Amino acid sequence: MELDVLRKFELAGKVGKRALEYALSLVEPGSKLYDVAEKVEAFIVENGARPAFPLNLSVDNDAAHYTPFTGDKLTFLTGQLVKVDIGAQVDGYPSDNAATIEVGNTGKHSDLIDASREALNFAIKNLRPLMRIGQVGSNIGRTITSYGFKPIRNLGGHGVDKYDLHSRVFIPNYDDGNGRPIDSDGVFALEPFASTGTGMIHSGPGGNIYIFSGTKPRKEEEIVKNFGTLPFAERWSTKVIPGGSRYLAEMMRKKEVSQFPVLREHRGVLISQAEHTILVRGDEIRVLTA
Questions:
Q1: Is 158 a catalytic residue?
Q2: Are residues 145 and 228 in the same domain?
Q3: pTM
Q4: How do residues 235-267 score in pLDDT, each as one tens digit?
């Protein structure tokens, strides 16, 4: 990895870490999800980067991919379990980190929060260059099950590359038998999810997050000019494109833009998440978002 690329990944990790900490501090009873998202994304810009994707604020049985829409009135309620997932990017080189918080900190769900966090910590502590991907998943899954919960089997970690948040490799939250070794020169995210349910998520309604999906990105398209090939929010488009919502609808009709669905388990299930971005360079293993 070239030194200038490394420096961009490092800055993205540093800003992403601070943005996550700031976001967690804003999740309080009565706070609007919209206000939290807008403040956190502005914080990233103020600190020399850009959001790698919209702030995800996924509540209770939702695991991922909800971000507030323009005019969203939803507020946080005491006792809700909120997955806060955010990253920064510098010239297209992104970070990705997440944590779970219970609104009001009543302590009712501390074991579930601990399960995903400690699974992440254990996996990082035991990570070795060229370790088998399935073994990384085993370390995550065994930790989650030791707390009495299920690892989500169809979500997991992923490679991270320039303008690509889910590149090359999938790192499961259980041992799937994958004997491929971890890349010896690259960046990836570990992303444990713990569930009180079956450990399998399904796609729900759209979560207000979009991505360019055309086979040949056209530089003249406003979506590409402003957001490149990284995910963006509906509320972002309304700020830079006249009639942003109509524009998005038309681009989706033409299959140039896709909307991410909210990923969720069944009603009544609770999910926790933890995530870090990790650099591997030969024998060096470093957590960029720590």
A1: yes
A2: no
A3: 0.94
A4: 998 888 888 888 888 888 988 899 999 999 999
